[in-house]
Amino acid sequence: MISVKKTTLSILVSVAAASALYAAPTKAELDSMKKIVGYFPEWGIYSGHDNYVPAKVPFEKITHLNYAFATIKDGVIANFDNYAATEASLGEPWDSPYKGNLGQFKKLKKEYPHLYVLVSVGGWTQSGNFHDVAATQEARDRFAASVVQYIRTYDFDGVDIDWEYPGSYRAPDTTDNANDQGTPKADDSEKETFALLLKTLREHLNKASQEDGKYYQLTAAMGASFQHIEFAIRPNMLSISTSSI
């Protein structure tokens, strides 16, 4: 089954299927669409998760799919599990360009032209490096440029920022997950830098959209608790970012 986030708000999500879909929608067309968004877990292809490969997704029931999760390494977006993302055969011949989850989604998008696939960055265990990539304009620009390159390489329709959570300190829980980064650098500066990161991403995506002739989407998943909403959704964030997402 699709791993759907029930406890987060996404700027993208609503509750009904689209009545009309576009191969290369404008921002206005996307704003008017009703959306059903699913999250596909990268690790789902392994036997411990019932070998849930991309071809098993009921694409006819959703409009958008977020691929979870890419991570951040050395200030840029990166695959978390290269084998699952690009190397697993998943029924393809050895020389196929459609190997791995990312190759499969490239292929499946041709069969389901109504579908938009976004890469989701971060998640519960991979949000520790957001602090640094958001901290300065230089770091934000570097990260945003890498996102543009990444979505072009893997034919994504945009990016979903799943920072869990701005301003919320959490020590790594390596007992349950050796790869858990926690959020050890979290502090109040992220009230501003979270919004500035979204602003910078939108600017870079707008430039890429003009160059590529398609509108690249930007969404953010945020905690639905009062604490997280009060911290992340503030008047200054709305003025800086929401108008351009």
Q: What is the terminal-to-terminal distance?
A: 29 Å
Number of domains: 1
CATH architecture: Alpha-Beta Barrel
**What is the CATH class name?**
Alpha Beta
For the sheet with most strands, the description reads: 7 strands, mixed
C-alpha Rg (nearest Å): 17 Å
| Helix and strand pattern | EHEEEHHEHHEHEHH
Class computed from helices, strands and strand pairing:
alpha/beta
Report the portion of residues in β strands.
15-25%
From the spread of the alpha carbons, the general shape counts as globular
Features:
245 residues, TIM Barrel, 7-stranded mixed sheet, 8 helices, 34% helix, globular, disordered C terminus
Describe this structure in words.
This protein is an alpha/beta fold and 245 residues long. The chain has one domain (8-244): Alpha-Beta Barrel (TIM Barrel). Helices cover 34% and strands 18% of the residues. It has helices spanning 27-32, 82-87, 100-111, 130-135, 137-153, 190-212, 226-232, 235-240, and strands at residues 8-10, 37-41, 64-73, 76-79, 116-123, 158-163, 217-223. Helix 5 (137-153) crosses helix 6 (190-212). The longest helix has 23 residues, at 190-212. The radius of gyration is 17 Å and the shape is globular. The protein starts with 7 loop residues before the first strand and ends in a 5-residue tail after the last helix.
Outline of the structure:
The chain has 245 residues and is α/β, with parallel strands linked by helices. It contains eight helices and seven strands; from the N terminus they run βαβββααβααβαβαα.
